[in-house]
Amino acid sequence: MRIYFDHNATTPVDPAVADALTRVMTEEFGNASSVHHFGQRAKAVIDEARSAIAALIGGEPSEIVFTSGGTESDNFALRGVADALEPTGRKHLIASSIEHEAVLVTLRALARRGWKVTLLPVDATGIVKPESLSQAITPDTAVVSVMHANNEIGTIQPIAELAAIAHAHGALLHTDAVQSIGKISVDVRALGVDLLSLSAHKFNGPKGIGALWIKRGARVTSILTGGKHERSRRAGTENVPGIAGLGVAARLAARKLTTEAPRTAALRDRLESAILARVTGTAVNGAREPRVPNTTNISFDAIEAESLLIALDLEGVAVSTGSACSSGTLEPSHVLRAMGLPSPRAQNSIRFSLGAGNTDAEVDFVVSKLPAIVDKLRSLTRTKVRA
Ligand code: PLP
Questions:
Q1: Does any ligand 1 atom lie closer than 6 A to the CB of residue 151?
Q2: Predicted confidence (pLDDT) at residue 25 exceeds the cutoff of 80
Q3: Global pTM?
Q4: 323 Cα nearest atom in ligand 1
């Protein structure tokens, strides 16, 4: 039996998405910039997907720019605003300290170019306090970037409040919604944001395709230059099959959200409470609410997360030690460290992220295996310490 509890790393492609990809790849091979029949058919595929994404997030189709995924969307938002606003003298960027590397490393690159960067703290809840933004923001702030939901602990940030503060100071608000799209309802107008990143492979779409929603009128310079694709905002022949797959994934996400979110939340809560009850020395990291319905991050006292991950994998269960990019290293998670968790606890935490297709039986299987695995690993640790 193979159980996949790592949906925040990536999700399986929905069969309807795979069908759309295959059909478009073979039948709609035209270049969407071509004037002839083949080009116009490819363009129609892109237009349809653009409408699907716009409908999912409450934006206008013309505000969607297709990208190669969440990383590019984050780069585009931050570098694009920095390039556009540098001449105005605004040279300050703010982000939360628990952003994905796609944001944090991009900010470091901009800091090397002379931008001032402020990272907002979080406490043990893993939620940014709006007051901390009020204190950090200045007339020089160009953009504030705070993720909608955190990839490691699932906490949801107060984006609407943060956007109001940013706007009161003339700054834009970018949110990385890569981990919230498809899990909770996301509406760009209700959130009041100016830029929003999303990535298809986190909600049963294909890898290597995503989008940046740019509010009409927001000043963002393109970072990929060349042809006039995407209204001159992102050059390069469009990935038509990927875009079609993203569109189908968006339509499915919109349709399934009201049933999938409570179903996943019930599974996650069943898993979480059973682990806390049956495995000693466990605790949930971060606030339990507000949190996306599929994620729980649990620390296991006196255990190395990597050993637990490997032991679970041997039982056929896939989990993660935090963000996928940092697994394979024993670096404690920057998210858990920013929350002030002591180093051992930041190093003994496991993320379980559920999704479509997971069942009660799978949760019960994992819960039945965990106590013995944890006991065994703890006894090995004790032996190592004594030796
Ligand atoms: N932002 C967040 C919050 C993520 O979780 C991820 C993926 O792990 C990304 C950005 C990067 O997205 P992509 O894998 O599409 O580049």
A1: yes
A2: yes
A3: 0.97
A4: 8
